[in-house]
UniProtKB/TrEMBL annotation:
CDD domains: HATPase_MutL-MLH-PMS-like, MutL_Trans. GO terms for molecular function: ATP binding; ATP hydrolysis activity; ATP-dependent DNA damage sensor activity; mismatched DNA binding. The keyword DNA repair applies. GO terms for biological process: mismatch repair. Belongs to the DNA mismatch repair MutL/HexB family. Residues 432-574 form the MutL C-terminal dimerisation domain. NCBIfam families: mutl. It comes from marine sediment metagenome. The keyword DNA damage applies. Residues 209-327 form the DNA mismatch repair protein S5 domain. Pfam families: DNA_mis_repair (PF01119), HATPase_c_3 (PF13589), MutL_C (PF08676). Keywords: DNA damage, DNA repair. InterPro entries: DNA_mismatch_repair_CS, DNA_mismatch_repair_MutL, DNA_mismatch_S5_2-like, HATPase_C_sf, MutL/Mlh/PMS, MutL/Mlh/Pms-like, MutL_C, MutL_C_dimsub. This is DNA mismatch repair protein S5 domain-containing protein.
């Protein structure tokens, strides 16, 4: 048989390698920005268009390249950063593989403009799908500009695999955060589709964190500092009371490189144990400086996972250092988890300033109009403490509800639920309810009883209600007497802008929206003013975690988040009226058996079940 093995041509090998190096536009951003850092730049500009799909440009004022180097930089395994295998154990640069530029040039249209300090003139190279199109001598400032257009132009399958511009933008923004946090002394500018996202002058680490995550972050930070022979730990943790429901601001940097380490993350969780509420996540920005010989960054192609020689010592040290900071700055709140939480001030209000309560007068409220408990709108609030009385919850809804109250009593014909449809039964007319362990509402049906999870039931009711409001765009909002100013970080503002339209449909009224914050002039009737900040933060973090693809899933997510945040929780006691209303509202829902998060809402226990227990 004839020999059949052949060496792949370079451009094919490069395209294959590109699959490893360039997964999406943000990978290009990472490689180009890291090259700029390695070139010693003190100022770096990132310019992107359409989530980086059409254009990514990185301009730096670093050391630049000679004409020959510029040409060579696009070859595979061409690097100025290491020469021999031992150098791998003494890395001081971000790059070392010499693969990035070759890979990028294999799958995009690339233009490089570069000049060194010593040269009078610079070089411009155009390269498309690994083929050099032109190389010219041009006038250029010192430094390098890399322009990458039409990513994956020659691999349609990869291009089609890319997510929406917004999703790709988020990945790029994440990458930008990581690199700019790892190098606070470098100035960064970031432009997206022609508008400024960040203008970050060179700064210290704390100021850089605040530049990126917004002014309100400053008060949350507690310094962490420890130096031993093995490691120098520095940076900040966030005070425990600011722990969030979602994992967001958690950053480890090892020798100025963003890394992921579930193991070391665990050490931080250990340090925070007992001082944050279960289910919340601490924020941290920590730098670990170790001898480059004791760290292996070679184990993962995209290089966010690393291996430390002595991870156990590092773990112990991190944990005790963070604990020490928590103690030293006296930020450990005296929390008693055993205490009945109902007697406690809600956690998020603990350290808030006491303010004069605002009186919201509902001018349209007519005390002579009969407002029956079960008015047919399924949006009630169940005994949750509110600033204003429950009557105002119905303000503005007078005309929309059915005023024939008798129609809404718990009768079989009006109740749309599988229990009743399936078994052709009705809930007892008297509708007796009972709350068990501040968690379940128990009510009777003819064949026995239903045990309802109060929180999930309320989530279902609120979810359907919000979804309806979004769809018919007829939400009722209450105007705030004094508009609220809430401050957010630039990337949070970016997300707010994306979801603003949908927020309006559920009843939020926005005033000015600037780079630093937003003015809220009105809120949905169910939302108390004091909850607005918390709700907005929750919404933003939910959207940060999971980017909805289309407008339907955006509405769905919004309704889910609002339902989750505003629902009564386990541990809240409900009075009888609220219990009955919740039961009525639940069984008026389109879907009654599952919560919006696909959890079982209730179980039924028949008389037979009970009788069997007595045998
Ligand atoms: P690596 O960074 O792993 O060395 P790259 O393919 O990213 O590999 O870059 C190849 C080489 O091109 C680098 O080693 C460096 O010498 C040069 N280079 C790339 N980008 C720049 C830049 N912005 N400024 C100066 N030199 C650069
Ligand atoms: Mg590189």
């Amino acid at each position: 048989m004839a020999d059949i093995i052949r060496l792949l041509p370079d451009h094919v090998a490069n395209q294959i390698a590109a699959g490893e190096v360039v997964q999406r536009p943000s990978s290009v951003v990472k490689e180009l920005m890291e090259n700029a850092i390695d070139a010693g730049a003190t100022e770096i500009q990132l310019i992107i268009k359409d989530g980086g799909k059409t254009l990514i440009q990185v301009v730096d004022n670093g050391k630049g390249m000679s004409g020959t180097d510029a040409r060579l930089s696009f070859e595979r395994h061409a690097t100025s950063k290491i020469q021999k295998a031992e150098d791998l154990f003494n890395l001081h640069t971000k790059g070392f593989r010499g693969e990035a530029l070759a890979s990028i040039a294999a799958i995009a249209h690339v233009e490089m403009l570069t000049k060194t300090e010593d040269d009078d003139i610079g070089t411009k190279i155009k390269i498309e799908g690994s083929k050099i199109v032109t190389q010219e001598v041009v006038v250029a400032p010192k430094g390098t500009s890399m322009l990458v257009k039409n990513l994956f132009f020659n691999i349609p399958a990869r291009r089609n695999f890319l997510k929406s511009d917004q999703v790709e933008y988020r990945h790029i923004a994440d990458e930008f955060h990581r690199i700019s946090l790892a190098h606070p002394q470098v100035a960064f500018n970031f432009y997206n589709n022609g508008s400024d996202v960040f203008q970050l002058p060179g700064n210290d680490f704390r100021k850089r964190i605040v530049q990126i995550f917004g002014r309100k972050t400053d008060e949350k930070l507690v310094p962490v500092e420890e130096e031993t022979q093995v490691v120098k730990i520095s940076g900040y943790i966030q005070k425990p009371e600011f722990a969030k429901k979602s994992r967001g601001e958690q950053f480890f940097f090892a020798n100025n490189r963003f890394i992921k380490s579930p193991y070391l993350h665990h050490a931080i969780l250990g340090a925070f144990e007992g001082v944050i509420r279960p289910g919340t996540h601490p924020g941290y920005f920590l730098n670990l400086e170790v001898d480059p010989a004791t760290i292996d960054i070679n184990i993962h192609p995209t290089k966010t996972e690393v291996k430390f020689d002595d991870e156990h010592t590092l773990y112990a040290m991190l944990k005790s250092t963070v604990k020490h900071s928590l103690g030293q700055f006296n930020v450990v709140p005296a929390l008693d988890f055993e205490q009945d939480q109902n007697l406690d001030t809600p956690y998020s209000y603990k350290n808030r300033q006491v303010g004069v309560p605002q009186v919201v007068v509902d001018s349209s409220f007519n005390p002579f109009e009969t407002t029956q408990p079960s008015k047919g709108n399924s949006s009630g609030s169940y005994s949750k403490p509110k600033v204003d009385g429950w009557e105002s919850l119905y303000s503005g809804l007078e005309t929309s509800g059915d005023t024939n109250a008798s129609h809404l009593e718990f009768e079989s014909e009006v109740v749309n639920s599988s229990i009743f449809d399936g078994e052709k039964e009705a809930v007892d007319h008297t509708t007796t309810t009972f709350q068990l362990r501040k968690k379940y509402i128990i009510t009777t049906i003819k064949s026995g009883m239903v045990v309802i999870n109060q929180s999930r039931a309320h989530q279902r009711v609120l979810y359907e209600n919000f979804l309806k409001n979004i769809t018919i765009k007829e939400a009722v909002s209450q105007q705030l007497l004094f508009p609220l100013m809430l401050s957010f970080s630039p990337s949070e503002i970016h997300i707010l802008k994306e979801i603003k339209e949908n927020l309006c449909t559920v009843g939020f009224v926005f005033g000015e929206l600037t780079e630093e914050g937003v003015e809220i002039k009105g809120v949905p009737v169910l939302v108390a003013e004091s909850e607005v900040q918390m709700i907005m933060e929750q919404l933003i973090s939910d959207f940060q975690q999971e980017v909805p693809g289309d407008s339907f899933s955006q509405s769905d997510m919004l309704a889910k988040t609002l339902a989750k945040t505003l629902s009564v929780k386990t541990g809240e006691s409900l009075d009888e009226f609220s219990q009955v209303k919740l039961v009525n509202d639940l069984f008026a829902c389109k879907e009654t058996t599952l919560s919006p998060f696909n959890k079982k809402v209730y179980i039924t226990i028949t008389e037979n079940d009970i009788e069997r227990k007595f045998i």
